[in-house]
Write a structure and sequence with these properties.
With 239 residues, this protein is of the alpha+beta class. It is 22% helix and 19% strand. The protein has helices at 2-11, 15-26, 45-50, 73-77, 128-137, 157-161, 233-236, and strands at 87-88, 94-95, 144-148, 151-155, 166-173, 179-180, 204-208, 214-221, 226-232, 237-238. Strands 7-4-3-10 form a 4-stranded mixed sheet. It has a 4-stranded antiparallel sheet with strand order 6-5-8-9. Strand 1 and strand 2 form a beta hairpin. It starts with a helix and ends with a strand. The relative contact order is 0.11.
Length: 239
């Protein structure tokens, strides 16, 4: 009977008391000292303020970019070359610095009294302007050697055929100094100005048999330009 009475009393307990007990159980326990078990006193505000702030990791400082060189129009226009000042000699006069060899003009070859002629393209092959390209392309045909009648005949027929653009022809044999071989006149009154007429003579000279071994040919064009070629007998002999 006592147990039944206690159970009834518990069931009939007012709900307010149950809510108070729940609130008490939900309240957090106060901090206690780990050694004594007593409640620990809260930290004073001065201690809280004295705590060091949390350390924030900052990025490493980057080097400042180098300043670009100042641009000016004068700097661009100034040539980056060294200028040599003239030297003063013992007498106080200034010596002129000679230009490099590759810039110095080549001295003109002596003309030997020859005078340059105007270079005008006539279409008739009368000047060096028209004749030189042909003679440069046909150097192997300038001369020929033929054994005939117990002699060496040295022909210059090809050069006579383009003589209107030449002022002078020189030929040297076997290492001797080249000598002048006269050229016939250019017949400008004829349709073929470089034709070889009977009055012009023969375009060869005779020498002892097999005596012509080395031939040097020098041409002077009517613009005073020159050209020189050496031939050996084997290269120009007619079989």
């Amino acid at each position: 009977s006592d147990l039944m009475a206690q159970a009834g009393a518990a069931v009939s307990a007012p709900p307010a008391q149950a809510e108070v007990q729940a609130q008490v159980q939900e309240e957090p326990a106060a901090p206690q000292d780990a050694q004594t078990g007593a409640e620990a006193d809260p930290l004073p505000e001065s201690v809280i303020e004295a705590r060091p702030p949390s350390r924030e990791i900052l990025p490493a400082p980057q080097p400042a970019p180098e300043a670009a060189p100042e641009y000016t129009a004068e700097a661009e226009a100034a040539p980056q070359v060294a200028i040599l000042a003239p030297r003063e000699g013992a007498s106080g006069s200034q010596d002129t610095v000679a230009p490099p060899a590759f810039l110095a003009p080549k001295p003109a070859a002596p003309s030997g009294g020859l005078v340059a002629e105007p270079q005008v393209a006539t279409g008739r092959f009368l000047t060096a302007l028209e004749v030189r390209p042909i003679l440069n392309a046909t150097k192997a045909n300038w001369i020929a050697v033929r054994e005939y009648g117990g002699q060496d005949l040295l022909y210059v027929t090809h050069l006579w055929s383009w003589r209107c653009g030449l002022l002078e022809l020189r030929i040297g044999l076997n290492g001797a100094a080249p000598e002048i071989w006269p050229l016939p006149p250019c017949h400008e009154d004829l349709p073929a100005a470089a034709a070889i007429l009977e009055s012009d003579g023969l375009p060869y000279r005779s020498f002892p048999l097999r005596s012509v071994q080395l031939i040097e040919v020098q041409l002077t064009y009517d613009d005073l330009g020159t050209s020189k070629v050496r031939f050996n007998r084997a290269g120009v002999v007619i079989p």
